[in-house]
Design goal:
The protein is α+β, with helices and mostly antiparallel strands. The chain has eight helices and eight strands; from the N terminus they run H-E-H-E-H-H-H-H-E-H-E-E-E-H-E-E. Strand 5 and strand 6 (199-200) form a beta hairpin. Bound molecules: 2-acetamido-2-deoxy-beta-D-glucopyranose (NAG) (3 copies). It comes from Xenotaenia resolanae.
């Protein structure tokens, strides 16, 4: 038995190393998150709500945050994408800055990049843009006559329209009212993909996330009155027109 002991230790060490670098540890789902600028700007100061369409918030793998702190965002690497980035993925707090993209790259992109299909800044950002245009949420909602207006919707009609159209369940989030008599406000929509970029059901997490930079895209964000959470079936939904 004594002879085997070192061998077992080696084996255990080898196995645990294998587990750490194993592909099983890789993310398995990507969450394409889009925001309604006017709702985002209703909970942020110094905001530019002048976008009359859903804009990208991020492309988030389901595992990991800040996976490689030495891999810095470099906008030269996505030079050719910048016109589309400015239009489709604007920083609503500061439209002329690259800060938002830098933040999303460090927090989520460096983790997405653990997969060969997304292992460069260009691959990551161009895939996010590609998926954004492919799902074309803006046209989809219009097709179902869900347009920003002063009339309220039921959450079921929005959710059913989307689920029928995409064939998978999105995760739809609202800013909840502080008073009982008020509607909830449509704010953010997540559409999920597997590692091959095929549409997938999003799970419903009944957790609250907030719109603020620090915790907005953290799935386990803290509870705040202005926070976003999965829309309720019991409250009318307001989809606010762009000012
Ligand atoms: C919104 O306003 C900002 C700042 O005034 C400007 O930079 C941006 O181009 C505008 N966006 C649109 C879509 O009009
Ligand atoms: C982190 O990023 C740097 C810079 O791109 C790269 O050289 C390094 O291999 C990466 N580290 C890991 C663990 O992927
Ligand atoms: C940014 O990327 C460009 C183009 O790939 C490269 O020439 C440049 O050295 C990079 N800058 C930094 C600071 O890494």
């Amino acid at each position: 038995m004594r002879l085997y002991f070192p061998l077992l230790v080696c084996l255990a060490a080898a196995l645990s190393t294998a587990a750490i670098s194993s592909p099983l540890d890789l993310w398995t789902k990507l969450i394409l998150t889009q925001q309604w600028p006017n709702t985002f700007c209703s909970v942020e100061h110094h905001c530019h709500p002048n976008f009359s369409y859903w804009t990208l918030h991020g492309l988030w793998p389901d595992k990991g945050n800040n996976c490689n702190s030495s891999w810095h965002f470099n906008s030269s690497e996505i030079e050719d994408l910048l016109p589309d980035m400015k239009k489709s993925w604007p920083d609503l707090l500061n439209p002329s800055s690259v800060q938002f993209w830098k933040y999303e790259w460090s927090k989520h992109g460096t983790c997405a990049a653990e997969a060969a299909s997304l292992n460069s800044q260009h691959k990551y950002f161009s895939k996010a843009l590609e998926l954004y245009h492919k799902v074309d949420l803006n046209s989809m909602l219009m097709k179902f006559n869900i347009t920003p207006s002063d009339k309220y919707y039921t959450f079921s009609e929005i959710e059913e329209g989307m689920t029928n159209f995409y064939g998978v369940k999105p995760k739809i989030q609202c800013v909840h009212p502080s008073k009982n008599s008020e509607p909830q406000v449509l704010g953010q929509i997540e559409i999920c993909f597997d590692a091959d970029f095929t549409l997938l059901d999003c799970e419903k997490h009944f957790t609250i996330s907030t719109f603020s930079r620090g915790s907005l895209d953290h799935p386990l964000g803290v509870t705040k009155p202005s926070g976003l959470s999965v829309c309720s079936y019991d409250i009318p939904v307001y989809y606010p027109p762009t000012p």
